[in-house]
Specification:
Elements: H1 3-14, E1 32-37, E2 43-48, H2 58-69, E3 77-82, H3 95-100
Parallel strand pairs: 2-3
Antiparallel strand pairs: 1-2
Length: about 100
């Protein structure tokens, strides 16, 4: 699989992860800040945030992301980093997410 194909699979997988309190996936919510594959496509590093630093579902969401990304063929190492810079706000959501949440 090419790195582009792996990156597409990563995005597809991230779109299956939801904050239990919000009916929109974390990718379209804009919670994913960085997706980086090494040159041979075997190591993945993801930087993500939460809608609020004190999110009660933080551990659940982080583990869900890690477990799902680990199922992608070819990946040998997956790192998920929780970051809070820049601070998330609703302008980071996709148009589809805003529409789903009635913000348009």
């Amino acid at each position: 699989m090419t790195t582009t194909e792996i990156q597409d699979k990563v995005i597809d997988m991230l779109r299956t992860v939801y904050d239990p309190e919000i009916p929109v996936n974390i990718y379209d919510l804009g919670l994913i800040y960085r997706i980086e594959l090494n040159d041979d496509g075997t190591e993945l590093e993801v930087d993500m945030t939460l809608t609020a630093p004190n999110c009660p579902a933080a551990d659940f969401i982080m583990e869900d992301v890690r477990q799902k990304l680990c199922t992608i063929d070819g990946l040998k190492n997956v790192s998920v980093n929780l970051v809070f810079e820049p601070e998330w706000d609703k302008d980071m959501m996709s148009e589809e997410a805003k529409l789903e949440l009635g913000m348009m």
